[in-house]
Amino acid sequence: MEQSLYDPYLEAKVSGIKVRFICFKKINSLLVQSVVYLRKSMNKIEKRCRLTYELVHYSRGHLTLTGLCEGHTAQEEDKIRQETANRLIKGTKLCFLIESCISMDKIAEELQVTKDVIYDYFKYCKVKPFDDLKSIKRHSSVVVCKVSAGSY
Ligand SMILES: [Zn+2]
Predict the structure, then answer these.
(1) Containing H/E element for 110?
(2) Residue 116, helix vs strand vs coil
(3) I need a surface site. Which of 2, 82, 126, 130 has the fewest CB within 10 A?
(4) Contact 117, 88 (CB under 8 A)
(5) Residues with CB under 5 A from ligand 1 (ion)
(6) Same-domain status, 50 and 24
């Protein structure tokens, strides 16, 4: 049976946040008050990840009086990305996919995330940064153990 994936559109709706699609040229997304603007030309998976990322900013109460999040240190940004990954990825499913998939692309597709989000999730679970699936598989017992411990 297919495990259901986190749905950021549902969360936005429940939180009273509107999602709008815009022809941005240089940025992927923007949070202004209770509206998330997403670049229209991103694919479905990129939009899913970016919306989640903006929802994390929102849920952390980052909006200032101007209605904008005014930016972060690199360290904070890292934490935000890791929390984004934790919302998007279920550890148990990732463990299963590590054992059964032949490429990171396939794993990303199954999880409906970009590969960057998978690496952010590994960071969140304190898995050392592997370059490719081959090395991940070679250390799969360690990876699976850490991912299982770090997942909700
Ligand atoms: Zn923020």
Answers:
(1) helix 104-111
(2) helix
(3) 2
(4) yes
(5) 57, 62, 69
(6) yes
22 DSSP β-pair partners: 39
Ligand 1 centroid–CA 131 distance in Å is: 29
Tens digit of pLDDT for each residue in 51-109? Answer: 999 999 999 988 888 889 888 899 999 999 999 999 999 999 999 999 999 999 999 99
Q: Are 28 and 72 in contact (CB under 8 A)?
A: no
Distance (Å) from CA 32 to ligand 1 centroid: 11
Distance (Å) from CA 121 to ligand 1 centroid: 19
H or E element that contains 84 = helix 74-88
Question: From CA 58, how far away is CA 12, in angstroms rounded?
Answer: 10
Same-domain pairing of 140 and 98: yes
- Please check whether residue 122 lies inside any domain of the structure: yes
